[in-house]
Amino acid sequence: MVQASKFLRNWLIPKRKNKKQWFLLMLLSITVAIAIAFWDVLIQSELADLGWQAWVSIAVTIAALLGNAMTTLPAEIVFLGALAVLLVTGILKTNAALAGFSNEGMVTVAVLYMVVTGLQQTGSLAWISQRVLGLPQGEKSALLRLMPPIIGLSAFLNNTPVVAMFIPVVKDWCRKLSISPSKLMIPLSYAAIFGGTCTLIGTSTNLVVNGLLIANTDHPGLKMFDITLVALPCVIAGTLFLYLAQGSLLPVRKPVIGNTDELRQYTVEMVVSPQSPLAGKTVQEAGLRHLAGLYLAEIVRGNQLLPAVSPQEVLRENDQLVFVGVVDSVIDLHHTRGLQPATDEVFKLDTPRTERCMIEAVVSNTCPLVKKTIREGQFRTRYNAVVLAVARNGERLLGKIGDIILEPGDNLLLEAHPMFLEKQRASKDFYLVSSIPDSEPLRHEKAGWAIAILVGMVVCAGFGWVPMLNASIVAAMMILLTGCCSPARSLQSIEWSVLVVIGAALGVGEALRTTGAAEAIAATCISIAGDNPWVVLAVVYAMTNLMTEVITNNAAAAIMFPISLALSQSLDTNILPFVITIMIAASASFSTPIGYQTNLMVYGPGGYKFTDFTRIGFPLNILFGIIAVTLAPLIYPF
Fold first, then answer.
1. Is the per-residue pLDDT at 486 higher than 50?
2. Which of 105, 220, 432, 464 is most buried (CB neighbours < 10 A)?
């Protein structure tokens, strides 16, 4: 009893530092106040006629949302749990519960991960980053450089492949600019959503609503840019909002370079290969001055040593470049076209380079190579691995890699077959052995194939010649058949946790739809609005926007269209303001990561929490609502 009273007292008088508790208490108070104010309407509404299945679906949905916002449980666990409750209680049949995992959109996301991996493994994404994004100064400049091309592409292409293609580009870009990925991943997803609202083909939701308009009225349907007159001001205002709010509302979730990396500085030698595209360029033009956590210490040119290298120094073929830096930047060097390891030992290993990876190993005091140079110890012959770089207590090691005398505790950056890990993990020669993700040598010679496959996929899907799923499957097959990426690497690239959340969230949304809960909630809230068309339009936006955050945007639009059509007929008004408002509201999925699949795709790479989307997305939802509800009736009068 004492514990119960203490719990209630803490909830009724929460500490001000507990922001989540204050937020929930405020939300509960607002909900109770609305219920009391409109009690007569509520008890006579469709909500009163709902069965227990609908109420359980509503409760499970709310619990899933709160579970994501208030706990540290992974999103996939929360939504799988919610789906399990709906399945066990019989609210969803097995086929309906599992239908989300065979959803065309979810499968398309999975296949696109494979296509993007092919682009990444050929160096094509690095080329896109360099050509499209450049190297701006600061977070706000980076945001302005990022959003226009994403908005432009998403206006005519499916949002999902655009975001899938740019996630690894932005991750790499953030590392080069020393910006936390969490500052740009949400803007990446939002920019794709912005672009999708701008044209009739920008998102499937617009096409669904337009199809309903043609099927249920005598209207001939919207033209390509009819929605642009309302959507474009929303996009401009949204971009300006993100620019102004980036510093305060977007968190810093992931440091670009951790403290451990700063302590482990590798010395690595690279050579400008014959016929390299870098030959004839200055150090700055070659992009070798902008790698975070790495600097060019010196250049060896024949018998000449060039210390304190100037950014304007022109590179020549066969120049040997000595760098000192952290492991991520060393990987960037090995992925740079026109540079190759200074040692020719990498070309003498038994396995092809495309099947190797980079591995870190710490030399133990019982290693037989201690007090010997790497060359004397015949490291390659003994371990079937090549030393690419060495780190020792933060010191810069002078001389060529092969001349370095190994000491206990030295960190070695190796190139070897993944089997090296299994063989040496139990060995007494090394204290620690670990692989480095995304460190495979790039297949630059396949870059042309990868870009051609991407363009073909985009053109075929963009012009509607084939469905997006079919185009992406063919593209993934071509990526594998042309050798742009290995099958094992392509499967490793798939973000299975994202797919699980998408599939489970679709199942939860299906429960709200099939039990009638979503439609009843929408109809009840709209009945409160009265007979003022502006107020009704605002409520239509709010309800569509609320539903699109918890069920799919297409489902939200499909539920709200017949309700809006009936309202426009009873009010004797034009249906077009309602149609445009539903299109924008259904696409404006900003407040939760589960509202739209591109939000889920950036959730992990940005290191976000559930509430990060609410903090910056909720004001954006309101901003889009104000503009859409204001402009739609002015451009398409009631």
1. yes
2. 105
